[in-house]
Amino acid sequence: MASEQKITIYNYNKDNYSEENASFDECINYKDKSGITWIDVKDVNNEQLLEKISNCYNLHQLVRESLLEQNKRSKIEDHGNYLFILLTTMSYSAETDEVFSEAVDLILGDNYIITFSHGTTISQILEPTKKRIRTEGTRLRESGTDYLAYRIIDALIDNYFNILKSYGEKVEILEEEIFNRGEKELLLHIQKLRRDMLSIRESIWPLREVLNSLQRGESRLIRPETRIYLRDVYEHTVQIMENLETSRDITASMLEVYLSTVNNKINEVMKVLTVFSTIFMPLTFISSIYGMNFHYMPELTWRYGYFAVWGSILIVVFSMLAYFRKKRWF
């Protein structure tokens, strides 16, 4: 019974709507049912279930293999009677401060859509789309499967904007900390930020190619009126790519600023050490002279010799300090 709760079927048209948790046997009843059917499969690790669904809808062997793959990359395949669209998205966990990849395998047919969710947050991402299905009078209830596919793709794309917003805030915080602290941990944060943005870029890049193919209208399953919406989603991917490039440039500048700040601190330390070394050079010279073991050194028997040496040392020290201060070396 546990696996039965991992298939949700939505069937709807302009006037009617139904939603139920179902087993595979109940899925078969919806194959030729009137209206639009969305079969949302969450139990993607159940190979037996995937095989049954694949057989029921005559999915190609390559599609079946793609459903079982662990490392996903966005792509689109036209199999005539249906489209196989593999969609990836990225999610961010504030608790672990990590981004992770998730994916949806989407089968688009004439009157049905099957989605296989790979990830823990996919249901949450697609919840606004499900609410539109439940609401009577929405464009989604009056449109076909291609528009439903558009709404699913749009939800996954919009999720990237949420991640970019979070990372934009992190960039602002790091910029302030670089100037205020410049600690070593900041370098690790900057490097992690750059790696995460690279992962996001690698995820969104093939998605753009998928959307470009869809909005060009190469499949009969995508109606002309839906291509307009897909073109809008394609522009969203371009915008995300531009935002990513901007953020990467900012993090590169932050890295340069951090290294410059560290070098400036090192230079300040070296300046102080150089000043002290320069001051002690004449003092060492004076001390070394009177540290020589000659029998005849007149100053050694002079009553005020000790005080004269100390006076010379203090004069040299204060003179050099005054000179360095005048030159603004410290």
Automatic annotation (TrEMBL):
It is found in: Cell membrane; Membrane. One of its GO terms (cellular component) is plasma membrane. Pfam families: CorA. It is a multi-pass membrane protein. Gene3D superfamilies: CorA soluble domain-like (3.30.460.20), Magnesium transport protein CorA, transmembrane region (1.20.58.340). The keyword Mitochondrion does not apply. Belongs to the CorA metal ion transporter (MIT) (TC 1.A.35) family. This is Magnesium transport protein CorA. It comes from candidate division WOR-1 bacterium RIFOXYB2_FULL_37_13. The lineage of its organism: Bacteria, Bacillati, Saganbacteria.
